[in-house]
Design goal:
This protein is of the alpha+beta class. The chain has helices at residues 2-34, 134-141, 144-165; strands at residues 40-42, 57-61, 73-76, 85-93, 96-100, 117-121, 123-124, 127-128, 130-131. The chain is 38% helix and 22% strand. Strand 7 and strand 8 form a beta hairpin.
Length: 166
């Protein structure tokens, strides 16, 4: 029985290593293709409804802030939030970029400087590219509970596979 456990442990470690390698390669590849540190973003609030919904997974590409136009949807950081914000550019004055969520009554406080901007949301046929609800899954897997569940599911799959082979 101990050889069965050793074999299961080896397979689990192997699968985790392969999964981590794939994750690194995909992340690195997307970073290269889109030119940004975080090419995938999750819409976490309803501030961009109906254009973007909470849970949407969006793709972000590098952009020169000087090339932004009013109407572009950008991803940026602000001091009052620990997560990136996804809002629309509503005005550009003297290099200062003003933003607002489509569903918000008022513009965001202050302005965005070029250093605040991660990138621009990729559009297809004039609409932001989004994958509905997938962002929730991605966001959950970043939590300690999500990671624990993934490890447990992986272990169950490997152990079940080993027992089938025996």
């Amino acid at each position: 029985m101990s050889s069965l456990y050793r074999r299961a442990a080896k397979e689990i470690v192997y699968i985790i290593l392969v999964a981590l390698l794939l994750l690194v390669l995909v992340d690195f590849g997307l970073n290269l293709v889109f030119g940004v540190k975080y090419p995938l973003a999750v819409v976490m609030s309803g501030s961009m409804k109906p254009t973007l919904e909470p849970g949407d997974l969006i793709l972000v590409q590098k952009v020169d802030p000087m090339n932004l136009k009013v109407g572009d949807i950008i991803v940026f950081e602000v001091p009052w939030s620990s997560t990136p914000i996804v809002h629309r550019v509503v005005a550009i004055e003297d290099g200062k970029i003003f933003t607002k969520g489509d569903n918000n009554l008022y513009p965001d406080p202050g302005y965005r400087s070029p250093e605040d901007i991660y990138g621009k949301v990729i559009e297809v046929s004039g609409n932001p590219f989004r994958i509905p609800l997938v962002g929730y899954i991605l966001a959950f897997t970043q939590t300690i509970y999500g990671k624990a569940i993934l490890v447990v599911l992986l272990a169950i799959m490997v152990i079940r596979d080993i027992y089938r082979k025996e």
